[in-house]
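User: Please fill in residues for this 150-position structure.
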């Protein structure tokens, strides 16, 4: 974050307030000591997923949504409820200290929220979780499972 007065890159945060998707920060430049306010969109933080094999991948919210859609297939769960649940997961991920998140941690959050949303969907998910390495694998495994269920 650069100072708008002198372009110095080090500032200290005096005050920080979150609204829905904006964080308002009161900052003071460490060089010229002028104060300014920034409004930072929470979405702008790029999250990285660390896969089991150590490879890094950009976080993709749609993969989680698709995972939920699959797990909730034929369940009385609206798309809206899924979107809201994924919002909550995403919010929780963005509150973590690190922007690099192990896929295992994401999987566990998905389990936690799925359990609250729908027990059947949760059991479907949990039964393939052993094999869970990333969300693509998860989707494939769920497809197989849904075929077996008919
Ligand atoms: Zn400055």
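Assistant: Residues filled in for all 150 positions:
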């Amino acid at each position: 974050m650069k100072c708008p007065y002198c372009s110095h890159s080090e500032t200290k945060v005096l005050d920080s307030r979150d609204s829905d998707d904006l964080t308002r920060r009161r900052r003071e430049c460490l060089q010229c000591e002028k104060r300014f306010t920034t409004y930072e969109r929470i979405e702008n933080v790029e999250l990285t997923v660390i896969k089991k094999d150590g490879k890094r991948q950009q976080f993709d919210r749609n993969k989680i949504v698709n995972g939920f859609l699959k797990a909730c297939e034929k369940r009385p769960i609206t798309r809206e409820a899924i979107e809201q649940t994924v919002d909550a997961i995403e919010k929780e991920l963005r509150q973590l200290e690190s922007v690099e998140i192990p896929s295992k941690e994401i999987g566990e959050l998905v389990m936690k929220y799925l359990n609250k949303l729908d027990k059947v969907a949760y059991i479907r998910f949990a039964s393939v979780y052993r094999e869970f390495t990333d969300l693509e694998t998860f989707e494939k495994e769920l497809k197989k499972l849904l075929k077996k269920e008919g």
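For context: The first helix runs from residue 61 to 71.
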